[in-house]
Design a protein that fits this description.
It contains two helices and nine strands; from the N terminus they run E-E-E-E-H-E-E-E-E-E-H. With 130 residues, the protein is an alpha+beta fold. The radius of gyration is 14 Å and the shape is globular.
């Protein structure tokens, strides 16, 4: 099972969401920024690295707020951990995504998210997470 970390980067009542490019697996789907944990890496360290690589920010990684396991139809299994990020240094820079958006929490279900993120999207929209 692939170990993955993702960030809920929040600003007031908005969450930063990212759209995959046409050239990535599951093209144009929306997701929360993050990526896989490398061998020997701690989850916080992996997320800090991924946010620097994807968005050019130096993030302060907060608490884990949600964890799930998901099996995609192609057989790929992931364990996904979500962490809160309330603050970061440097300006956000879209380095790899089609687009990035600060979306109001209640609007999240309107975006075409990755299948693995759908339960969390509903929880955030309902005000149950963060």
């Amino acid at each position: 099972m692939k170990q993955v970390v993702a960030a809920l980067i929040v600003r007031q009542d908005k969450v930063l969401i990212c759209q995959r490019t046409r050239h990535q697996p599951l093209p144009l789907k929306w997701e929360f920024p993050g990526g896989k944990i490398e061998r020997g890496e701690q989850p916080h360290d992996a997320l800090h690295r991924e946010l620097d690589e994807e968005l050019g920010i130096d993030a302060t990684i907060g608490d884990e707020v949600f964890r799930l396991k998901h099996l995609y139809a192609n057989g790929l299994g992931i364990e996904l951990r979500f962490y809160l990020v309330h603050e970061f240094k440097k300006e956000l820079e879209n380095r790899i995504f089609q687009q990035i958006v600060w979306a109001p929490r209640t609007d999240l279900p309107q975006y075409d998210f990755l299948e693995a993120d759908l339960k969390l999207v509903q929880e955030i929209a309902a005000g149950k997470v963060y």
